[in-house]
Design brief:
The complex is a heterodimer.
Chain A: H1 2-29, H2 33-37, H3 44-54, H4 60-72, H5 86-121, H6 126-140, H7 143-157, H8 170-199, H9 202-210, H10 214-226, H11 228-243, H12 246-251, H13 257-266, H14 270-298
Helix pairs in contact in A: 1-14, 5-6, 5-8, 5-11, 6-8, 7-8, 8-10, 8-11, 11-14, 13-14
Chain B: E1 7-12, E2 15-20, H1 24-37, H2 42-56, H3 58-61, H4 99-135, H5 137-152, H6 155-165, H7 170-196, H8 200-208, H9 212-248, H10 260-266, H11 276-303
Antiparallel strand pairs in B: 1-2
Helix pairs in contact in B: 2-4, 2-11, 4-5, 4-7, 4-9, 4-11, 5-7, 6-7, 7-9, 8-9, 9-10, 9-11, 10-11
Chain lengths: 304, 319
């Protein structure tokens, strides 16, 4: 188990390094940021000077080395656009993503379990069918479209909530709702199928035969055992919640990490792109690692 | 899953030689496919068919040129709303472009890109999966390292980065989405191959002297087909949504070419006054993906209920 953990950690680290290299190269392939940063009247000499100041005149491998050695000590460089420390920019925005991601994660877990159990218990009744419809909708409808439509209905037409931005509790309603809606299907399906499995087992039949009330059977006995796949899908949803959804943040003008990354890409702000994408990658890798380790813990057959 | 290879054992001079039928795998799969096709759910298939007709016959079906600007008629509502104009069934956008025509042409772009991505990534994934699973050893580790790596990339961000770095365009989008998607196929195919490679008929083929390539093509492929097709059904919807998301975020096909995602983005600033600009393209996307997912579910249930529980960590989600 310990060995498996070690191997997985090393793999994740290697993947992280590879990702950093890919991001590094791609960001630089997209064009010269100097032209975006400098006024039209700049001469070639000015541009060359700026390039040198930003360290962009070095060969790419050298730039990469500089970046890596700095990154390891926590210095992610300075944003090209506003000269702020990348680390600080990220630290400012990241909690905002958590503010909508966290509640969405919690809500989708609770609702997912409730709906999954309801669907499994009332198998093939209208409850089951309704839950399955909601599930399939959550996997089919484009998130950006739903977000826009919700803004239209609840914000523009009904004036119940503000259209965008971050602020009072009102501002949280729609973004959290959208994120929850899309995180829900996976949790619900997992819950439903594992509950169905459990309800078919011997010991549930025994519990019923013993004369326990149906409620007790479902909630005290079956549920506890059906929860284990949820742990692992929790890890996946965690990555998504932490890293912020680019689409949701963009549509709702929510100043989070996803939006920061997107804007960095649009303005070819290399250090910022690297910082944000790497942070997101770290979280995705960490939660994948968590998921794999949990799987291995539960099922000893899956180990190296 | 039953083996679909028929082998005929021929006794020849007292030596038993197994003659492995060349086409038996393909034949049996073909017969089965027809049996399944007869029971397909009609409505989702019809809707998907409709969109495909849009895509193929766009030049014939669209009432107007999708890039035709007609400023006097800008922001016309769809005809069933007051102020609507029967000449523009679904209304016009801020430049007077007909929403319906853009929708039909958008179907062509979005569906073509999605089809290309699915074809490319599923083919690459299939080959890699077959090779990694059958050859094993270092090749396997090496290939799977790549696969796991690409699955670990933070989804939509990497697609965005690709698209923005390599310049806008159809081929960039196809490349970006394929790079992110192929690994899911590779994993599932490899899993199946690992399960199959020690079975008698494969070992028998090796003993008889069949080359690795022949084994993979003739014996392994028909048997991984089910799992591979299942993965395709799971991925199509994701690909369509991802392509739409890229389009919405401005990293897809550049304007004025209409793709469904960018159409929704076009209408974003007008949701209070001209909601139809964003509404119909988004509805089209949702409807298509809904039908694809519904069909995919049905197909999975038909093929083998066991396959329903495939885990896909780190899959590209349309966020």
């Amino acid at each position: 188990m310990g060995r498996y953990l070690l191997v997985r950690c090393i793999e994740s680290l290697v993947t992280l390094v590879v990702i950093s290299m890919v991001v590094f190269v791609l960001a630089r392939a997209s064009g010269d940021p100097v032209t975006l940063l400098i006024s039209d009247k700049a001469t070639a000499q000015d541009m060359a000077l700026l390039k040198q100041q930003l360290g962009l005149d070095q060969p790419v491998p050298v730039q990469y080395w500089v970046f890596i050695t700095n990154a390891v000590t926590g210095n992610l460089g300075k944003s090209l656009a506003d000269k702020g420390d990348v680390g600080r920019l990220i630290a400012d925005r990241f909690p905002n993503s958590l503010l909508i991601g966290g509640p969405a994660l919690a809500l989708s877990t609770v609702l997912g379990i409730a709906l999954g159990v309801a669907a499994a218990v009332g198998r093939n009744t209208w409850v089951d069918k309704a839950v399955r419809v909601v599930s399939i909708l959550g996997q089919s409808v484009p998130s950006f479209w739903l977000a826009i439509m919700l803004i239209m209905v609840f914000s523009v037409m009904l004036r119940l909530v503000p259209t965008s931005g971050m602020g009072s509790l009102d501002h949280y309603v729609l973004p959290v709702a959208v994120l929850t809606f899309f995180a829900l299907p996976l949790r619900t399906r997992l819950m439903r199928s594992s509950m169905l499995e459990i309800l078919d087992t011997e010991y549930v039949k025994l519990a019923r035969a013993k004369g326990l009330s149906e409620g007790s059977v479902i909630w005290r006995h079956a549920l506890k055992n059906a929860l284990s796949p949820q742990l692992t899908s929790f890890g996946l949803t965690l990555a998504f919640a932490i890293t912020g959804s680019v689409v949701v943040e963009t549509v709702f003008a929510w100043p989070g990490l996803g939006q920061l990354a997107y804007q960095a890409m649009l303005s070819r702000d290399y250090p910022l792109i690297q910082g944000t994408v790497l942070l997101v990658a770290v979280f995705v890798l960490a939660s994948n690692l968590l998921v794999d380790v949990l799987y291995a813990y539960v099922d000893p057959r899956i180990r190296y | 899953m039953t083996e679909s290879v028929a082998s005929r054992v021929v006794e020849h001079h007292g030596v038993v030689r197994a003659r492995l039928s060349r086409n038996a795998g393909a034949r049996a799969s073909g017969a089965r496919a027809w049996g399944i096709a007869r029971k397909i759910p009609i409505v989702p298939t019809a809707i998907i068919g409709l969109f495909m007709v849009f895509a193929v016959f766009a030049p014939l079906l669209a009432p107007y040129d999708p890039t035709r600007i007609a400023l006097p008629q800008k922001l016309t509502p769809p005809l069933f709303i007051e102020g609507g104009n029967p000449a523009y069934v679904l209304g016009t956008d801020a430049l007077g472009r007909d929403v319906l025509s853009r929708l039909i042409w958008g179907a062509r772009i979005s569906l073509t890109i999605s089809a290309a991505v699915v074809l490319l990534s599923s083919a690459v994934g299939l080959f890699v999966g077959l090779a990694a699973g059958y050859i094993g050893g270092r090749t396997d580790s090496f290939l799977m390292r790549f696969a796991d790596g690409s699955l670990a990339f933070p989804g939509i961000l990497m697609a965005l980065l690709f698209a923005i770095s390599l310049g806008p365009g159809v081929s960039t989008v196809i490349l970006a989405l394929s790079v992110l998607g192929w690994a899911s196929y590779a994993r599932i195919v490899r899993g199946e191959v690992l399960r199959l490679r020690n079975l008698e008929f494969i070992v028998g083929a090796r003993v008889v002297g069949a080359s690795a390539g022949r084994i993979m093509a003739t014996h392994l492929f028909p048997n991984v087909l089910d799992a591979w097709v299942v993965m395709i059904t799971l991925q199509i919807g994701l690909v369509v949504l991802s392509e739409a998301t890229l389009g919405f975020l401005g990293a897809g096909v550049p304007p004025p070419t209409p793709s469904w995602g960018s159409l929704v983005s076009d209408g974003r600033n007008f949701i209070d006054s001209a909601w139809w600009i964003s509404f119909f393209p988004g509805l089209a996307i949702g409807l298509l993906v809904l039908c694809v997912n519904y069909l995919g579910d049905w197909l999975r249930d038909t093929l083998d209920p066991r396959l329903r529980r495939t885990r896909q960590p780190g899959e590209l989600t349309a966020f």
